[in-house]
Structures are given as C-alpha cells and as structure tokens.
Amino acid sequence: EGGAIGGARNSYLGLAGDWGQVRVGRHDTPAKIALYATGVEMMGDTVMQFTDSGDGGMLNMQETRADDAIAYLSPKFSGFSAIAAIIPGEGTSAAGNDGLADAYSLGVGYSGGGFKFGFGYEDLDDLGGADTGYVNYNIGGSYSMDAFTVGLLYQAQEDAATDLESEMYALTGKYKFGNNEVVASYGNSENDGTGVANQSGDSYGIGFNHKLSKRTKLYAAYASKSHDGADFT
Known about the structure:
Helices cover about 5% and strands about 55% of the residues. The protein is mainly beta.
C-alpha cells in the first residue's frame, strides 16, 4: 500500500521477460504514463507544468499513482507499447467497491522518427480519496526536428461525485541550443457543471533551462493565468 516499501512514490514487485512485465504495488496508472509519453510536459515541477498542482501550475490535468495496482506492460513493437492495469477499490461491499477491478486504466504509446504519441483512458470512480474519483482520457503527441520540438495535449475529465466536466488543451514548443533550452507554453481550460457553467480560462508560460551536468540543471520559469468566474483550476 506504499508505506512499507517506499512511501509515496512507485513501490512494486514484478516479473519481466521477453513477453513484457507484470507489476503489483503502488504505481503510476497507464493513463498517467501515456500522458508523459507524449513529450508535451516540458517544464514539469515548475509553475509551467500542466498536471495537477493547484494554483502552482498552468492547468489541472489529472495524474494518479494508485495503491495496489496490478499492471501489465507490453514490450515495444515497432515503436508501439501498451499498458493496462486493474486497481482494487478496497472499500466495502455495501458501497460496491470491494472488488479486484473496481478501477482500471489503459495506455498506448509510440516513439520513433522524432514523433512521440500517447493515449490514455481510465475509470477511477470507485477508488475515492483526494486524488481519484474521476473518469478521464488524454491524447497528445510531439515532434522533434533538429533543435525544435512542438507538442499538443488534450485531456477530458468527468468528476465522479458531481456533474463537473472539464476539457483542457496544452500547446508547447521548445528550442535547444548548446546546454540551453527555451520553452513556451499555452493552456486552455473549460469547465461545465453546477455552479461553474461555461467557465473558461487561458494560461501562458515561458521558461529557460540550463544543463550543468547529467544530474543538475538551472531553470527560470514564468506563468500567468486569466479566467472568468471562480479559479478554473
């Protein structure tokens, strides 16, 4: 459950062979892996990131690391790979979420010829908790040519407890020169549901990375959000 062999990060046991891998434990969901496989999230863990970080990021794209996941990761075939996981709800029979596969997540990725692509879908309605309880899918990709990389990412969410639905788009580009990178990003979010009908918002960001070594880099990042109504993240 994450506490005994590694805490909050990925902590699992598994088997691997020419047929792929099976992992059991706390693990990123396949939809999350597919989201990052797109190569669009270029300034993660900064104010420019697109994934869930409250007011600290440009968008609120969901990503989940699930306890007790049972996952299969396929080998790569001509650049393609697939991941699937079932996740026990660990609730009660009265609540209807005490089965082995109350939640599930799927992901497909591709990498080759300068292209990266990812598609993920997951239904985490019956997990509950602060970071779950939703259905979403994400699709996107990026292309790199010489020093330039451009990427586009889309995610749709539906909250399990309410009628809130969200759609988010992210567009990003990167230019590399020497040990340096300049990244520019744009994001758009639209929410629809009780109390938040037709809300929308835009966000912009620009960042700079300087690589000092394989393990160390310096960065600077700036992001701005504007929206109507309550905070769209």
